[in-house]
Amino acid sequence: MFEHFGIKDFIDIFLVALLLYYLYNIVKISGIRPLFMGILVFLIIWVLVSQVFNMVLLGAILDQFVSVGLFLLVILFQDEIRRFLMSLGSKKGWKFISKLFFPNNKQKKDNSHLTAVVLACMNMAKSNTGALIVIQGDIQLGLYEQTGEIINADISSRLIESIFFKNSPLHDGAMIIVGKKIRAAGCILPLSQNPNIPKYLGLRHRAGLGISQETDAKTIIVSEERGKISYAWKGRLKMNVTPEELQQLLIEE
What we know:
- The protein is 52% helix and 14% strand.
- It is α+β, with helices and mostly antiparallel strands and 253 residues long.
């Protein structure tokens, strides 16, 4: 059976396994794992009915569903497919290849600008000032930047606090940080449809979680009602974060 198994077959299996693992992570982040598992169970039943037990009538009915399954998958997973294509177009894939073949090729990063972000969040939490800050990762956020006002200013805690001041015209939207620059403010973000979000959390938390599901950006949410800091990344929301924890989370890969 394995006499003709070569390096090409190994690479083929490895790439398929990597693709399935990546798709599983996307589904898990989006909170639609039950739907994914339901489709998987349906495919197993279809194989058993059509290929194993050779049930003609039931197999013919299931074959009709499978024939239009591609279009149904595009409709059901359109957000996940778009996020997958955005990831392919980013630098994330190249960074993975670089780490795979050059694991010791690490570059030191200057994270001093993140201290100003943490300080601003700490001050805004003390004064119950609501804020939503998005720090861009490998996936570009230009689409969301265009929904707000372009600033392109150096990061400073006072500037961040003044933008989110309650009387500021930009305080209701999100701030997008790219590198060491505040790229835009007052931006509109996609809302998360995850049903597991606590009911007492408002639109800021849903927007922060939503952008973390759509991209690889790191998101900081400061609650106006509770004066607490939350952190969202890869579709996961961590609440009641201390400034020290926030600093550590932001510098981690």
